[in-house]
């Protein structure tokens, strides 16, 4: 299994359904278990009582009866709708046709208890009318994939090297949290379309564990040549030192042997170091773009 981890920096993504290659070599979650996932000192607050069960009527009202105008995307789980709940909360609703399953409910309740700044929160679920639905927090800026390329693989937003590094750091922190849970959660479908950004452009990993809810979904293998590692649209907006170290880290994460790949905690530390070095070597991101503020991770787009 080869992973398109470096998709943040490529001109053309080889395969947007590729799996993450920077997984710790650990046992996956036992999805049938009823005991709670735990992580010492992080992530699962005792006050979370699991996923909220929504009714089909609630979600039909939130999406104007699943109007086409409310569709904001599609993914491995099905169509994604933007919805407005009665309390004013804006949510993302993923819907697919499927028979009700008790295992689905149990797995969703486990996943909904996972909380981290760099993970998209699973709020609830619904199983009615021959449908299965997942309700997530809504991220207004969409996916990084949408900022990197449109349907014809052309860039929609100019993301400078430092911005991409900061997004990679946020995503790595989310994955590191998943891998640190007991038992660990392996994403299994990590790609740029599953990395969303909020109003402050803070990266959040989406669909953590959702791969396990899909039956009969095969693994996808992606290949990419070394000539595609650097996005030519970056121009000269980065230092050779920073890019060389990033490529070296990327290649480590793509090692075919899981035991030889770095742990996500180590990836976070290394990405932080590379970004700090890049900040020190060049204090502005291209022509007239504002300086990155590491504390808030606020960005402007050219």
TrEMBL record:
It is a single-pass membrane protein. It catalyses: L-threonyl-[protein] + ATP = O-phospho-L-threonyl-[protein] + ADP + H(+); L-seryl-[protein] + ATP = O-phospho-L-seryl-[protein] + ADP + H(+). Residues 66-302 form the Protein kinase domain. It is found in: Cell membrane. Keywords: ATP-binding, Kinase, Membrane, Nucleotide-binding, Serine/threonine-protein kinase, Transferase, Transmembrane, Transmembrane helix. InterPro entries: Kinase-like_dom_sf, PERK1-13-like, Prot_kinase_dom, Protein_kinase_ATP_BS, Ser-Thr/Tyr_kinase_cat_dom, Ser/Thr_kinase_AS. One of its GO terms (molecular function) is ATP binding. ATP binds at residue 94. Its EC number is 2.7.11.1. GO terms for cellular component: plasma membrane. Its main location: membrane. It is an enzyme of class 2 (transferase). Belongs to the protein kinase superfamily. This is non-specific serine/threonine protein kinase. It comes from Musa troglodytarum.
């Amino acid at each position: 299994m080869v992973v398109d981890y470096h998709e943040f920096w490529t001109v053309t993504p080889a395969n947007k359904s590729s799996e993450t290659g920077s997984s710790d070599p650990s046992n996956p979650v036992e999805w049938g278990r009823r005991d709670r996932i735990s992580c010492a000192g992080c992530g699962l607050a005792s006050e979370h009582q699991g996923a909220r069960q929504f009714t089909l009527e609630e979600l039909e009202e939130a999406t104007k009866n699943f109007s086409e105008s409310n569709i904001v995307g599609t993914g491995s789980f099905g169509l994604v709708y933007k919805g407005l709940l009665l309390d004013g909360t804006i949510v993302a609703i993923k819907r697919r046709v499927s028979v009700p399953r008790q295992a689905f409910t149990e797995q969703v309740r486990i996943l909904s208890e996972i909380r981290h700044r760099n993970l998209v929160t699973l709020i609830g679920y619904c199983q009615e009318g021959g449908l299965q639905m997942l309700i997530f927090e809504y991220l207004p800026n969409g996916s990084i994939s949408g900022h990197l390329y449109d349907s014809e693989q052309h860039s929609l937003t100019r993301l400078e090297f430092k911005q991409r590094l900061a997004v990679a750091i946020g995503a790595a922190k989310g994955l590191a949290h998943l891998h640190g849970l007991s038992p660990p959660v392996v994403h299994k479908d990590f790609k740029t379309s599953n990395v969303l950004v909020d109003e402050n452009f803070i990266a959040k990993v989406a669909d953590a564990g959702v791969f396990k809810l899909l039956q009969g979904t095969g693994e996808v293998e992606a290949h990419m040549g070394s000539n595609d590692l650097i996005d030519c649209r970056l121009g000269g907006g980065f230092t050779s030192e920073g890019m060389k170290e990033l490529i070296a880290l990327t290649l480590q994460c793509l090692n075919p042997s899981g035991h030889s790949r770095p742990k996500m905690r180590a990836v976070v530390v290394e990405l932080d170091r590379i970004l700090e070095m890049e900040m020190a070597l060049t204090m502005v991101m291209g022509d007239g773009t504002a300086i990155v503020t590491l504390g808030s991770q606020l960005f402007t787009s050219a």
